[in-house]
From TrEMBL, chain A:
GO biological process, one term: intracellular protein transport
Family (UniProt): Belongs to the adaptor complexes small subunit family.
Full protein name: AP complex subunit sigma
Compartment(s) of residence: Cytoplasmic vesicle membrane; Golgi apparatus; Membrane, Clathrin-coated pit
Sample GO molecular function, one term: clathrin adaptor activity
Topology of this chain in the membrane: Peripheral membrane protein
Subunit-level organization: Adaptor protein complex 1 (AP-1) is a heterotetramer composed of two large adaptins (gamma-type subunit AP1G1 and beta-type subunit AP1B1), a medium adaptin (mu-type subunit AP1M1 or AP1M2) and a small adaptin (sigma-type subunit AP1S1 or AP1S2 or AP1S3). Binds to MUC1.
Leader sequence segment: none
Record organism: Esox lucius (Northern pike)
GO cellular component, one term: AP-1 adaptor complex
Transmembrane stretches, start-end: none
Gene3D superfamilies: 3.30.450.60
TrEMBL record, chain B:
One family name in Pfam for this protein: Adaptin_N
Entry's localization field: Membrane, Coated pit
UniProt subunit comment: Adaptor protein complex 2 (AP-2) is a heterotetramer composed of two large adaptins (alpha-type subunit AP2A1 or AP2A2 and beta-type subunit AP2B1), a medium adaptin (mu-type subunit AP2M1) and a small adaptin (sigma-type subunit AP2S1).
UniProt name for this protein: AP-2 complex subunit alpha
GO terms for cellular component: AP-2 adaptor complex
C-alpha cells in the first residue's frame, strides 16, 4: 500500500498516512485530486479506480471515506477488507466510532493504524492483538490527575 | 466541549480543536490558528522550562494544525526532545509528529537518529516498536543507512519478543524496498534473507496466533492471499508431486467458489473472493494447466453477471490477462456478448473502461470486425475521459487485423468522423503511411476520402488525410467525371479557409502535387497560389509555400516537376507510433496485446515493399490465434522481415540484427558470432541484448547490454550464466558481475539499458557454449529467455604469422589422421574474396598472404590458448569453383585425447562455413574445402613459451 487517506463527505481530510515518501506539495496535490475524484462518484459505483499507475480502493463508512492506493499487483478485495478491519478496530476502541472521535482523538487513530499496518503491510490482522497492544499503551499512561493539575494553555 | 476523549485527555487540545470547529469562516479559522501558533511559539521560547505534558500537548496542537493543511516551521526540536522522554505517551507523540511531518530528506532525521538508536537498544519492547515504526514510516535512505545494520540483529536475536520481531521484519522489508543496496550486508544476511519477503513474515505472525484465524468464516484470508502472491514469484514447480498438490489446492479454491456462502455479509464474500482472484492470478502466472485456466475463465464468466459492481469490475480485469493465454483465449472469447453488453450498459465509467480493455485483449482475426464495430459505436457516446484511448485501440486493432485494407481505411475514416477531436496525429499519420505503402488500397482510399469530404462539415483531420491522399493518388479516381481533377481540387479548396495553418500548408502541397498529376488544373491552381491571401499571407510558412510552389510550377519543365513531385516512396517501417502512444498512456495494462503487435506489424512491414507478393500473402493468411499466442509466450523473436540480400559485403553478421537466434535453448549455438565479437545477440519486442566482447590469450571479457525497448519497467530482472554438461566450471569459467548504476537493482526502467560484465576463462577445449538465462516480469507476465552465449573455441585464437616454407613444413608434420579435420561444403550464395578474408580474420587466425602456391587458396595459422594447453592450428581453405565435384569423404576421427578438440574445432569451422557464404554475387553451386590441421601442446609451467608436441 502506498498511502491511506480518510476524508469526510465535505472533502475535509481527517487522516493521512504515507508509506512512500512524498514531498508535501505532492501530498497536497494527490489528496486534492483523489478527494475530488472519489467524491464525484455515485454510491453504486465500484470501489476501485485506476489512478495514475496505482489502483485506488475506497469505501464509505457513514460520513467518512476510507481511501487506499495500492500497487498494480496488490489485491483489491483484500484491501477493502483491510479498510474494514481498520474500521472495526476504531469502532471497538471508541465504541461505535463516529467522525468526531477521529477528529478529537486523531493521534489515537494514528496509533491504532500503526499497530495494524506497518510500512503499508498488514502487521497484525488479529483484532484482539491490536486492541490489546493499544490498551496496554493506554495503561502506560501516567495517572490522569497529574494532567488535571496542569493548567490548560 | 465534546465528550469524546479517550485515554489521556489533553484538555487544552480538545478545547483548541473544538474552537477550530466552531469557526464560522476560513478567515476565523486562520485567525484562531495564528493566535495558537503565537501562543505555542512564546511557550517554547519562554524562559521557564516546559514540563513533558505541556510539550506533548503543544506538539500535538502543532500536529493538528499541520493536518489541517497549514505549514509548520517550528516545534521540531521540541518533538525531538519528546523522543528521549521516559514517558511512553510523550515519546509516542514525539514519534507521531516526526513520522507525519518529517520528509525523507529532512535535516531532522540526523537529529532523531540518536533517540531512535537509544530506543532500539532499550530492551523495552514498546519503545523498540515505536522506534521501528518510525524507521518504517519515514523509510528513507538516511534511515536505511543508519539502521539497516541494526534491525536484522534485532530480528534474529533470541531474546527479541515476537511482536518486536514482527515489526522488525516489516521494517526491514520497507527499508529493503526503498534501498535494497543498503540492506543486504553482514554475516547474518543468510539468516535473515528468507524472512525478507513480507509474505514470510505474515506466515510466522499468523502461525503464532490462531485465535483470530477466521475472518467472517473465511480462514486466514490475509495469509492465503500472501501465500498465493508469494507463489507467483516463482516458476511452476518442477517436482510432479509438489505441482500436483498445488493444482489440488487451486482446484479446491475454485470448488469453494461454487459453494453457497456461509454468510450474507459482504466481508465474507470479499475475503473469499480475494483468495479466489489471487488463485486465478497464480493459475494465469503458471499458464500451463489448461483445465484450471478454463475453469478460472468460467468462474470469471459468472462474475461478469454478478450484481456486485466490484466483482464485475475485477472479473473484466482478470479476464484481460486470461485472454492472452493460448489455453484460455478461446474460452474468454465465448463471453464476447456479455462484455459488449457491459460496454453498453454499465453505469460506471471505470467498469466500461475495463470492458473496453477486455474487448481489446480478446480481439483476434475471427472477431476483429465485430469488436471494432462495437467500439466505434461505443465511441459515439463514450466518456470524454477515455475517448482518446479508445481511438488508439480501434486504430491499432484495425491495422493489426486488417485482412483487406479497404476495411482498415473505412475504419480509420469512421474514427475521424465519429471522434475527430480525439484522433491524434499518430493515427492519421499511420493511415497515410499504410496507404502509401500498399498500392492495392490506394484507389479505394482516394475514392473513400473523396466521398468523406463531400460532407458539409467534416473534421479537419479528414481534410488532412483527404488532402494528402488525393495529392498522391487523386489520379486513380480522376477517370470518373464525378471526381475529375477540377472537382477534386474544388472540393479540397472549399475546406481551405476553415482550416488551421498546418492543414493549409498541407493543402498547398497537395495543390502543387495536383499540378504535376493533372496539368489541366495548373492555371486554376496557379491563380489560387497567386492570390494575395496566399502569396502575401501573414504566416511565413504559408507565404513561403505559395511563393515557392508558384515559381516551381511556372519555371520547371514537366520532367523536372515530375521528378520533384514524384509519388511518395514507401515509408520505412518502424514500430507504430500509435502503439508507442498507447503504451505511454496505459503503462503495463496494455501489454498483453501489444506483444502480438510486433508480429502483425512484421507482416505489414513485409507487405510494405511494393510488389512483395510473398509478404502480402503472409499477411493475408490467417494464423491461428493459438500460434500467435504461443509466439508471444516464449518471447521468441517474431518472424522478422527477410534479411536484405547482399546489402553488406563485409559485415558477416548483417543477418544477426534481423533474424536473431531464437530464444529456445535447444537451438544450436548461434553461428553468427563465430567471426564477430560485437553485435545484437538477441532482440524481441521487449528486450534487446547487445554484446561486446574482447579476448586475450585464454581470457575473455564480455559486456552484455540489456535494453528495455518498452516504456514500462521490467521488475525482478535477473540473469544467470550456467555451463551445461561437460562445460561445468572446470572447463570454462564464466563469472558474471552485474554493474548496474544502482547495484543489485532488479528494475530496468522503460527505455533504460543495464550493463553486465562476464569474465571468461578458457581452461581447456570445449564444444558447448555456456547458457545465459534472463528472467524478468513485464506487466504481470514472467519472461524467461535462455540464450547460448557466443563463446566458441576460436575466440581464444592467437594469430601466428609464418613464412611459406615454415607453414608447409609444419603442415606436413601434422599428418596423423586425428590431427586433421576436413570439411567440404557448398557455398550457398557464392564466394567473394573480401568476405572470405573478413571471415577468416574474424575467426581469429592470421591470414597468411603469398604462402599457398595456388592464389585461389587461403591459408591461416593460429594458436588456441587455454589454461592447460595450447592448440596450434593451420587452416587451408580451397574454394572450388568447378561445380558438381563429388567431395571426398571427411576423415573419421579416432577416439584419442585429441578427439574433443578436433571435434570442437571441426564443429566450429563447420559453423563458420554457412557464414562464409553471405556474399552478394550468386554463382551456382560452388564448393569450399576447408582442411584444418592442428597439434596440441601441453603448457609446461617451468618453461613458459616452449612447448612439446604430441
Amino acid at each position: 500500500m502506498q498511502f491511506m487517506l480518510l476524508f469526510s463527505r465535505q472533502g475535509k481530510l481527517r487522516l493521512q498516512k504515507w508509506y512512500v515518501p512524498q514531498a508535501d506539495k505532492e501530498k497536497k496535490k494527490i489528496t486534492r485530486e483523489l478527494v475530488q475524484t472519489v467524491l464525484a462518484r455515485k454510491p453504486k459505483m465500484c470501489s476501485f479506480l485506476e489512478w495514475r499507475d496505482l489502483k485506488v480502493v475506497y469505501k464509505r463508512y457513514a460520513s467518512l471515506y476510507f481511501c487506499c492506493a495500492i500497487e498494480d499487483q496488490d489485491n483489491e478485495l483484500i484491501t477493502l477488507e483491510i479498510i474494514h478491519r481498520y474500521v472495526e478496530l476504531l469502532d471497538k476502541y471508541f465504541g461505535s466510532v463516529c467522525e468526531l472521535d477521529i477528529i478529537f482523538n486523531f493521534e489515537k487513530a494514528y496509533f491504532i493504524l500503526d499497530e495494524f499496518l506497518l510500512g503499508g503491510e498488514a502487521q497484525e490482522t488479529s483484532k484482539k492483538n491490536v486492541l490489546k497492544a493499544i490498551e496496554q499503551a493506554d495503561l502506560l499512561q501516567e495517572p490522569r490527575h497529574e494532567y488535571f493539575n496542569v493548567p490548560v494553555y | 466541549m465534546p465528550a469524546v476523549s479517550k485515554g489521556d485527555g489533553m484538555r487544552g487540545l480538545a478545547v483548541f480543536i473544538s474552537d477550530i470547529r466552531n469557526c464560522k469562516s476560513k478567515e476565523a479559522e486562520i485567525k484562531r490558528i495564528n493566535k495558537e501558533l503565537a501562543n505555542i511559539r512564546s511557550k517554547f521560547k519562554g524562559d521557564k522550562a516546559l514540563d513533558g505534558y505541556s510539550k506533548k500537548k503543544y506538539v500535538c496542537k502543532l500536529l493538528f494544525i499541520f493536518l489541517l493543511g497549514h505549514d509548520i516551521d517550528f516545534g521540531h526540536m521540541e518533538a525531538v526532545n519528546l523522543l528521549s522522554s521516559n514517558k511512553y505517551t510523550e515519546k509516542q507523540i514525539g514519534y507521531l509528529f516526526i513520522s507525519v511531518l518529517v520528509n525523507s530528506n529532512s535535516e531532522l532525521i540526523r537529529l532523531i537518529n540518536n533517540a531512535i538508536k537509544n530506543d532500539l537498544s532499550s530492551r523495552n519492547p514498546t519503545f523498540m516498536c515505536l522506534a521501528l515504526h518510525c524507521i518504517a514510516n519515514v523509510g528513507s535512505r538516511e534511515m536505511a543507512e543508519a539502521f539497516a545494520g541494526e534491525i536484522p540483529r534485532i530480528l534474529v536475536a533470541g531474546d527479541t519478543m515476537d511482536s518486536v520481531k514482527q515489526s522488525a521484519a516489516l521494517c526491514l522489508l520497507r527499508l529493503y524496498k526503498a534501498s535494497p543496496d543498503l540492506v543486504l550486508m553482514g554475516e547474518w544476511t543468510s539468516r535473515v534473507v528468507h524472512l525478507l519477503n513480507d509474505q514470510h513474515m505474515i506466515v510466522s505472525s499468523a502461525s503464532t496466533d490462531l485465535q483470530d484465524y477466521t475472518y467472517y468464516f473465511v480462514p486466514a484470508p490475509w495469509l492465503s492471499c500472501k501465500l498465493l502472491r508469494l507463489l507467483q514469484c516463482y516458476p511452476p514447480p518442477e517436482d510432479g508431486a509438489v505441482k500436483g498438490r498445488l493444482v489440488e489446492c487451486l482446484e479446491t479454491i475454485l470448488n469453494k467458489a461454487q459453494e453457497p456462502p456461509k454468510s450474507k455479509k459482504v466481508q465474507h464474500s470479499n475475503a473469499k473472493n480475494a483468495i479466489l482472484f489471487e488463485a486465478i492470478s497464480l493459475i494465469i502466472h503458471y499458464d500451463s494447466e489448461p483445465n484450471l485456466l478454463v475453469r478460472a475463465c468460467n468462474q470469471l464468466g459468472q462474475f461478469l453477471q454478478h450484481r456486485e459492481t466490484n466483482l464485475r469490475y475485477l472479473a473484466l480485469e482478470s479476464m484481460c490477462t486470461l485472454a492472452s493465454s493460448e489455453f484460455s483465449h478461446e474460452a474468454v472469447k465465448t463471453h464476447i456478448e456479455t462484455v459488449i453488453n457491459a460496454l453498453k450498459t454499465e453505469r460506471d465509467v471505470s467498469v466500461r473502461q475495463r470492458a473496453a480493455d477486455l474487448l481489446y485483449a480478446m480481439c483476434d482475426r475471427s472477431n476483429a470486425k465485430q469488436i471494432v464495430a462495437e467500439m466505434l459505436s461505443y465511441l459515439e457516446t463514450a466518456d470524454y475521459s477515455i475517448r482518446e484511448e479508445m481511438v488508439l485501440k480501434v486504430a491499432i486493432l484495425a491495422e493489426k487485423y486488417a485482412v483487406d485494407y479497404s476495411w482498415y481505411v473505412d475504419t480509420i475514416l469512421n474514427l475521424i468522423r465519429i471522434a475527430g477531436d480525439y484522433v491524434s496525429e499518430e493515427v492519421w499519420y499511420r493511415v497515410i503511411q499504410i496507404v502509401i505503402n500498399r498500392d492495392d488500397v490506394q484507389g479505394y482510399a482516394a475514392k473513400t476520402v473523396f466521398e468523406a469530404l463531400q460532407a458539409p462539415a467534416c473534421h479537419e483531420n479528414m481534410v488532412k488525410v483527404g488532402g494528402y491522399i488525393l495529392g498522391e493518388f487523386g489520379n486513380l479516381i480522376a477517370g470518373d467525371p464525378r471526381s475529375s481533377p477540377l472537382v477534386q481540387f474544388n472540393l479540397l479548396h472549399s475546406k481551405f479557409h476553415l482550416c488551421s495553418v498546418p492543414t493549409r500548408a498541407l493543402l498547398l502541397s497537395a495543390y502543387i502535387k495536383f499540378i504535376n498529376l493533372f496539368p489541366e488544373t495548373k492555371a486554376t491552381i496557379q491563380e489560387v497560389l497567386r492570390s494575395d491571401s496566399q502569396i502575401r499571407n501573414s504566416d511565413v510558412e504559408l507565404q513561403q509555400r505559395a511563393v515557392e510552389y508558384l515559381k516551381l510550377s511556372s519555371i520547371a519543365s514537366t520532367d523536372v516537376l515530375a521528378t520533384v513531385l514524384e509519388e511518395m516512396p514507401p515509408f520505412p517501417e518502424r514500430e507504430s507510433s500509435i502503439l508507442a502512444k498507447l503504451k505511454k498512456k496505459k503503462g503495463p495494462g496494455a501489454v498483453s496485446v501489444e506483444l502480438e503487435d510486433g508480429k502483425e506489424r512484421g507482416e505489414l512491414n513485409g507487405g510494405a515493399d511494393r510488389g512483395g507478393e510473398a509478404a502480402i500473402a503472409a499477411s493475408n493468411s490467417t494464423p491461428s490465434p493459438s500460434s500467435d499466442l504461443l509466439g508471444l509466450r516464449s518471447a521468441a523473436p517474431v518472424g522478422g522481415p527477410a534479411p536484405s540480400a547482399g546489402s553488406l559485403l563485409v559485415d558477416v553478421f548483417s543477418e544477426a540484427g534481423s533474424a536473431p537466434p531464437s530464444a529456445a535453448s535447444e537451438d544450436p549455438a548461434p553461428p553468427l558470432f563465430v567471426c564477430k565479437n560485437n553485435g545484437v545477440l538477441f532482440e524481441n519486442q521487449l528486450l534487446q541484448i547487445g554484446i561486446k566482447s574482447e579476448y586475450r590469450q585464454n581470457l575473455g571479457r564480455m559486456y552484455l547490454f540489456y535494453g528495455n525497448k518498452t516504456s514500462v519497467q521490467f521488475v525482478s530482472f535477473t540473469t544467470t550464466v550456467s555451463c551445461p554438461g561437460e562445460l561445468q566450471s572446470h572447463i570454462l569459467k564464466c563469472i558474471p558481475s552485474l554493474t548496474h548504476t544502482k547495484p543489485v537493482e532488479p528494475l530496468v526502467e522503460g527505455g533504460a539499458q543495464v550493463q553486465q560484465v562476464i569474465n571468461i576463462e578458457c581452461l581447456t577445449d570445449f564444444v558447448d557454449a555456456p547458457l545465459l538465462n534472463i528472467k524478468f516480469r513485464y506487466g504481470g507476465a514472467l519472461q524467461n529467455i535462455t540464450l547460448k552465449l557466443p563463446v566458441t573455441i576460436n575466440k581464444f585464437f592467437q594469430p601466428t604469422e609464418m613464412a611459406a616454407a615454415d607453414f608447409f613444413q609444419r603442415w606436413k608434420q601434422l599428418s596423423q589422421p586425428q590431427q586433421e579435420a576436413q570439411k567440404i561444403f557448398k557455398a550457398s550464395h557464392g564466394m567473394d574474396t573480401e568476405v572470405l578474408k573478413a571471415k577468416l580474420l574474424g575467426l581469429g587466425t592470421a591470414l597468411l598472404e603469398n604462402v599457398d602456391p595456388n592464389p585461389e587458396n587461403y591459408v591461416c595459422a593460429g594458436v588456441i590458448q587455454t589454461k592447460i594447453q595450447q592448440v596450434g592450428c593451420l587452416l587451408r581453405l580451397e574454394p572450388n569453383a568447378q561445380a558438381q565435384v563429388a567431395p571426398p569423404p571427411p576423415p573419421t576421427h579416432t577416439h584419442t585425447h585429441t578427439h574433443l578438440c578436433a571435434h570442437a574445432l571441426d564443429s566450429h569451422t563447420a559453423s563458420v562455413c554457412p557464414s562464409l557464404c553471405g556474399s552478394h554475387c550468386i554463382t551456382h553451386c560452388t564448393h569450399l574445402h576447408v582442411i584444418t590441421r592442428y597439434c596440441i601442446y601441453v603448457k609446461d609451467p617451468h618453461r613458459v613459451g616452449s612447448s612439446k608436441s604430441h
